[in-house]
Amino acid sequence: MTAQKTFNSAGWTVNHLTDPFGRTSISDGVGWGTFPMAGPWLVLHQWEHFLFTSDMDYLKNEAWPSMKESAEFVMGFLIKDKNGYLVTAPSNSPENTYRLPEGGKFNLTYGATMDIQIIRELLNACVRAGELLGENRQFISQMKNVLKNLPPNRVSKRYGIVQEWIEDYEENEPGHRHISQLFGLHPGTQITPAQPELFEAAKRTIERRQTYAAKGQGSSTGWSKAWMVNFLARLNDGDAAWNKILELQRERTLNNLFNSHPPFQIDGNFGLTAGIAEMLLQSHAGEIVLLPALPSAWKNGTVTGLKARGNIEIEISWRNNRLSGAKLEAAENINITVRSGSLKTGLKLKKGEPVILDSNLRVMK
Question: Residue 191 and residue 57: Cα distance in Å, rounded?
Fold first, then answer.
């Protein structure tokens, strides 16, 4: 209903405020309530569930129907801008505001970076899912064509950071708790070391946010600190991630260990545990990376029961801040690449047959 009545588009979506009573329309403040990308973001969780489980029945019967209709929504919602790119309108970068050269404070825009990053993640996922399921080729071709016409991620000429809006606007609150333009870093897959310019711009984005926040020109909640842990893990900065964990525990954790927004929000608890997992294991960029962001404070340790995409269970051990060994067991036959630091190896895993690696990623017989 919301897709058709509010946005004149096919498919389905929800906005920022969605609750058990069926509210899906634009609600509350303009600067956050106008967020029809909430639906596409939600279905990305379904895609991630498939990537970690490799459950084709789940993909076909549960994930694909909602993914497909979400893709139909965004393709119907997008319009061409003055440069011929397909963009969202209305759009905003949640809760943050920008100003124009003549002044003012504005939320609404078109083609905010977070919107485009979410759509790119969604359509790429739907293309892959559709091809795996043998779905309609014309629909898959339509999604590929839209992907070609989305505006690229941009680096601000003003500050060298990942640009938050489609124009290089000046932000009113440079220390803002949201860092929406880094959705492509985490949980997305668009900003990795394979894109060095964007990767470095992401680092500068975080540095700038934290510098201004430390001056009191912004605010920081429990969930935003947890998201920062995930960002820093994806940037392979283990010490910075660990310091942010300590900061979260000191400043935004209640006596019962509930995360404080304030008040209590579960986002910070879940986000923190996700960030710790990201510090120890990553698999979002086409390879399995062991100990990508290990802090120097975690000198020795072992972690068991972590899961990588491809339905691979992994155990990792380290000594003196260096990998000492790992065990990988796949639920299905799969070919993978494993990396740790500068070491890299290819493996052919067989269903239910554990493979043990030494500190140099050599298979132990």
Answer: 30
Average pLDDT (205-211) is: 95
Q: What is the pLDDT of residues 4-27, one digit of tens each?
A: 888 888 999 998 877 777 778 777
Find, among 43, 45, 46, 27, the residue nearest to 35 by Cα: 27
Instruction: List phi, psi (to 5°) of 64.
Output: -60, -45
H or E element at residue 32:
helix 30-33
CATH of 287-365 among 2.60.40.420, 3.40.50.150, 2.60.40.1180, 2.40.10.10: 2.60.40.1180
pLDDT beyond 90 at 203: yes
Note if the pTM is more than 0.85: yes
CATH class of segment(s) 1-205: mainly alpha
Cα–Cα distance between 300 and 41 in angstroms, integer? Answer: 37
Picking from 218, 216, 231, 215, the residue whose alpha carbon sits closest to that of residue 175 is 218
